[in-house]
Amino acid sequence: MATINQKIVLASRPVGMVSESNFRLVEEEVRELNEGEVLFRAQYLSVDPYMRGRMNDTKSYADPVGIGEVMTGEIIGPVESSKNPRYKEGDIVAGRVGWQKYAISDGKGLRKIKPSSVPISTSLGVLGMPGLTAYFGLLDVCQAKEGDTVVVSGAAGAVGSVVGQIAKIKGCRVVGIAGSDDKLNWITEELGFDAGINYKTSENITEELKNHCPQGVNCYFDNVGGPITDAVFPLLALNSHIAICGQISMYNSEKGEKGPRLLWNLIVKRATIQGFLVFDYFDRFSEAMPELTEWVASGKIKYRENVIDGLENAPRAFIGLFKGENTGKQLVRIS
Ligand SMILES: NC(=O)c1ccc[n+]([C@@H]2O[C@H](COP(=O)([O-])OP(=O)(O)OC[C@H]3O[C@@H](n4cnc5c(N)ncnc54)[C@H](OP(=O)(O)O)[C@@H]3O)[C@@H](O)[C@H]2O)c1
């Protein structure tokens, strides 16, 4: 019997906040493999904030997804059949092949996941792109070192939760900013952050930060932008470093943003601000992975996954990122 693939395609481009109507589920038969190809099945799909940018009809660092095309994204799961000598049935592979149940690949860009003590889903989170983003953003861009005070926004998310824990391993003081008290409890009680601020209930984020950062902020790891970032700038320490990782507060914005307006703080504090993309560090992934893996295996880095079942629920899982519904890495379990 023919195998039926299910995939989620872009049905329309969102204006402002993305909605489920911007997506469509389609089915098609899985074709026969050509020589050199491999067929694998998705066990998990990663949904990530950057995908919102791909839904717009504008090129940024990557081309947009076309209407009717499968949504961009990474899946992980077992090889079902192979005509590629590098992969055999049962191998676990991860690849950026989109929101779909089955994928055919020529093998280029696939990652073979070695069996280990941690679940394979971690290869999409703490031991995948988000973990690597945290690692290089904190250690290379922010240049965090022992004794520094590190502030991270989006602190209970996939990237932010790892940033704070690496900073603690390196001997920093860490303050996280996130959107609920439950999230703050998790990062302070379980992950070891020194303090947390709930930006949704705080009357004055700068004042609260001042109490938690008496020596100022040496490293600011920015996942969100907007008013939260405005609130951190006045507290920058001399020669501080700011990593612009993400600006999720603006991804669904309809109005053009006017800022940044607070750059004079960079003059006063001789601060360095740098945007970065994790893929700029591709050649150094092999340097980070053993260290991240050891930290996770030894429990020095803890992680949480927010799992929603069913490919058909991927749009809901994705939209939840913009409503703060996830704690830790948002995943979709497909089979
Ligand atoms: N530069 C790179 O190479 C790179 C790589 C990976 C990710 N990123 C960026 O890093 C950021 C975090 O990504 P992630 O995968 O770890 O996502 P995530 O933090 O796991 O999920 C997104 C979180 O953002 C917060 N959020 C949503 N809307 C917000 C708003 N208006 N203001 C403040 N916070 C808001 C929510 O938490 P709250 O409950 O706290 O609001 C939500 O849980 C994103 O901006 C992403 O684009 C960049």
Care to describe what's here?
It is a single chain. Helices cover 24% and strands 25% of the residues. By secondary structure, it is of the alpha/beta class. The chain folds into 2 domains: 151 residues, Alpha-Beta Complex (Quinone Oxidoreductase, Chain A, domain 1), CATH 3.90.180.10; 151 residues, 3-Layer(aba) Sandwich (Rossmann fold). The mean pLDDT is 96. The structure holds NADP nicotinamide-adenine-dinucleotide phosphate. NADP nicotinamide-adenine-dinucleotide phosphate (NAP) binds next to helix 2 and helix 3.
Give a quick set of tags describing it.
binds NADP nicotinamide-adenine-dinucleotide phosphate, eight-stranded mixed beta sheet, 335 residues, Quinone Oxidoreductase, Chain A, domain 1, alpha/beta, Rossmann fold, 9 helices, single chain
CATH-level-2 architecture of the largest domain: Alpha-Beta Complex
Percentage of residues assigned to helices: 10-25%
Q: What is the CATH domain class of the largest domain? A: Alpha Beta
| Main sheet record | 8 strands, mixed
Number of helices: 9
Distance between the amino and carboxyl termini = 19 Å
The assigned structural class equals alpha/beta
